[in-house]
Amino acid sequence: MKINITKKQILIGFSILFIAALLRFVNLNRWPVFADEAIYVRWAQVMKAEATLRFLPLSDGKQPLYMWTLIPFLRVISDPLIAGRMLSGISGVLCVVGVGLLAFLLTKNINRGLVAAGIYAVIPYSVLFSRMAMVDSMLVMFIIWGLLFFVISIEKQRWDFSMLAGFAFGFAWLTKSPAM
User: Fold this and answer.
1) Per-residue pLDDT tens for 104-133?
2) Is 71 exposed, middle or buried (0-12, 13-18, 19+ CB in 10 A)?
3) What are the residues whose beta carbons fall under 8 Å from the beta carbon of 140, sequence distance 6 or more?
């Protein structure tokens, strides 16, 4: 299947990504700290400081992947809350990309993929959770990309995409237990 992408569609795609990033990254420190945000960021700080506590979230029944991923952000960004919210924002932008690609694969129409990505980019629910230092944005990202790789593996009959789908679903499970 040959894909014909126009310059207008490329411009629209980059505009959607720009709007998604703008909605997720501007004024990250304007909102008050939510209780779960403080817990996740503090666990990541403790895990960064003490290597023997890398599985600290398991003591509260939480999976540690979000906190593990947050540790490098804490090394680069001085404000821990902004670091956590940046990680969630990046996950949210990757969700927008994944939704657009998934819609394109399911409909075989670039315009429908752009519409789906555009809608997901501005839905208040997705913007809210992508601006908070919580695991939910990363969970949704892994589920969307798992579905994307699953659809590709079914269409192309390839094991490598099946494995990528399995990895994505496994990472979702390591992010939060409702991934089951």
Assistant:
1) 999 999 999 999 999 999 999 999 999 999
2) middle
3) 91, 95, 126, 129
User: How many residues in total does the chain contain?
Assistant: 180
Helix (H) or strand (E) holding 155: helix 136-156
Q: What is the 3-state secondary structure (H, E, C) of 9-22?
A: HHHHHHHHHHHHHH
Contact 76, 86 (CB under 8 A): no
- List, for residues 38-71, the tens digit of each pLDDT value: 999 999 999 999 999 999 999 888 999 999 999 9
Query: What DSSP letter does each residue of 98-121 carry, written as one string?
Result: HHHHHHHHHH--HHHHHHHHHHHH
Burial call 15-49: b when 16+ CB within 10 Å, e when fewer: ebbeebbebbbeebeeeeeeeebebbbebbbebbe
DSSP 168: H
Query: Structure tokens of 117?
Result: 């990505």
Q: Which two tokens stand for residue 92?
A: 């949210």
